[in-house]
Amino acid sequence: MHVQHGSYRTVLVIPSAHLAIKVPRVRVREFVSNVRYHVRGFREGKGSWRVFWQYTFLKGVDTYCTGQRALFKGVVDNWREWRFWSETRHPVLAPTYGWFGISVQRTVDPIEIVAESFFARMLEIVGEDVFDDIHHFANPGNFGSLNGRLVAVDYASPGVQQLLLRCGEAIIRDFRG
Ligand SMILES: Nc1ncnc2c1ncn2[C@@H]1O[C@H](COP(=O)(O)OP(=O)(O)OP(=O)(O)O)[C@@H](O)[C@H]1O
Ligand SMILES: [Mg+2]
Questions:
Q1: Could you read off the pLDDT of 78-92 as tens digits, one per residue?
Q2: Nearest to residue 25, comparing CAs of 76, 62, 81, 84?
Q3: Which of 7, 68, 76, 154 is the most buried (most CB within 10 A)?
Q4: Ligand nearest to the CA of 152
């Protein structure tokens, strides 16, 4: 068993059981530093209650620097992955077996490729849409190998989900490490 640290999930990988247990990270320090940022703004006469309120409580996990993102993105990402897998069962996805806040996914083998080459391969197969989420497609750790095909392990983002639906078959067919 080993542990991998993502930005919003800590993943316990248990290859012998074929299970990856994805535990949401609650980023309290990020939350506090976001609040401090706004408080500093007030002190310097630049802050507004409306912005403070929106960023701390109202704006959701997909907006950077929000309270919801710091505290709940991990749990929402786990739920989104489980729902997307349940609805599509697409072969370009690592199966997600359940969501209990924590989620349980099929383990994949890491792919041995440097980030630059991986991004270049994805650009060839998927096209310029990869620029919509460079962070995702520049990180081979968001994918892995399952029964000889490339599959995604990190597919919570709605943009990434649409792209995988559109190009999943091509990724499976054309990706060679
Ligand atoms: N099913 C899996 N099998 C094997 N390893 C996995 C699996 N799911 C995740 N991992 C490992 O855990 C790491 C973090 O997982 P994941 O990308 O899903 O979390 P994250 O919080 O969204 O991370 P980030 O935002 O940094 O991409 C991955 O880069 C990968 O190394
Ligand atoms: Mg990831």
A1: 999 999 999 999 999
A2: 76
A3: 154
A4: 1
Ligand 1 atom closest to residue 6's alpha carbon, by position in its atom list: 23
3-state secondary structure of 60: coil
Q: Is 6 in the pocket of ligand 1 (CB under 6 A)?
A: yes
104 touches ligand 1 (CB under 6 Å): no
Domain shared by 136 and 171, yes or no: yes
Q: Is 101 left (phi over 0), alpha (psi -120 to 50) or beta?
A: left
Q: How many Cβ atoms sit within 10 Å of the Cβ of residue 47?
A: 15
Query: Ligand 1 within 6 A of 20 CB?
Result: yes
**CA–CA dist 5, 107 (Å, integer):** 15
Q: Give me the pLDDT at residue 177, please.
A: 67
The share of the chain scoring above pLDDT 90, in percent, equals: 79
Domain boundary among 52, 72, 107: 107
pTM for this structure?
A: 0.93
CA torsion through residues 150, 163, 6, 12, sign? negative
> Do 91 and 9 reside in the same domain of the chain?
yes
**Structural domain of 123:** 109-177
